[in-house]
TrEMBL record:
SUPFAM superfamilies: HAD-like (SSF56784). GO terms for molecular function: hydrolase activity. Belongs to the HAD-like hydrolase superfamily. SerB family. The gene is serB. It comes from Oceanisphaera ostreae. This is Phosphoserine phosphatase.
Amino acid sequence: MLMNDLPEQVADWADILSGKSCLWQSGQLSCGHLSAIKGHLVLLAEHLNKSAVQQSLQVLDAAGIAVEVAGVKRVADRDVLSLRLSDWSLELKQQLQQVANGWDFACVPALPDANKPGLVLMDMDSTAIQIECIDEIARLAGVGEEVAAVTRAAMEGALPFSESLRRRVKALAGADAAIIDQVIANMPLMPGLITLVEGLKAMGWKVALASGGFTPFTGHLRHILALDADFANTLEIKDGRFSGEVLGNIVDAEAKARILLELAEHFNIEPSQTVAIGDGANDLLMLAQAGLGIALHAKPLVQEQAPVCFNQLSLEGVLGLLQAP
């Protein structure tokens, strides 16, 4: 079967490809399977069209990589096409990114197994929720612009996270701590968060937060979403006001990576079955440590270094990737 014979919408391929072992060769679909699988390419979009597949296959063909079709699914109202590859290289991500226009993809040597126990560890600010909580606290405290500028520098990797956090918290000194409740009351969840958490729980997976933010916010999310664990920083409060200090050790990049390993050991989960999701420079170590690291709408530095980048879909896309055939 030629590519031209397939429907324009990839979702319509499901019945055609069902139960078949197929190879893409020179623009044609034929029976067969790869003798050895060294990589995986998953394409995802709200509605995935044939052009996305054609452009991706051109990249693979130019690299001399044979492709086996693993299957087509509709997960969380998103199209998911899974391909197995005869070879894999780090350069493939950059090459595929050049043609990805309107869809997301993951090109990795291995994927976690949705049928085995697993762990997802997420950043909170701009990942599990749509805001940076400290920026919202600062805005209500009247120092919003000053703090937001430091936040941007930290997330882009221009400033060490621990230093940036202490500077931002210092700016809050004297503000009414009741601001925390105001922020919680207006804290917008990231699109797809509930879908992802519910899907992971149905798979029997563990879900946790590791945040450079603060415990009242991670604790609130843990409560309303029934998460398995949360880790964040503790703001010192004296006489109902912020002291301008952080208590205890700061949850920075190194801490997030360590928390991932410790949780995996605690829950007896294989390292290859761990997934980390984040958006800032302080998430990079955690993303690299995980079996699968996913950057969500990330800063440029993170886009360059993260194993997988989602720019079109939101957190529901993570569920699609994990449930890809």
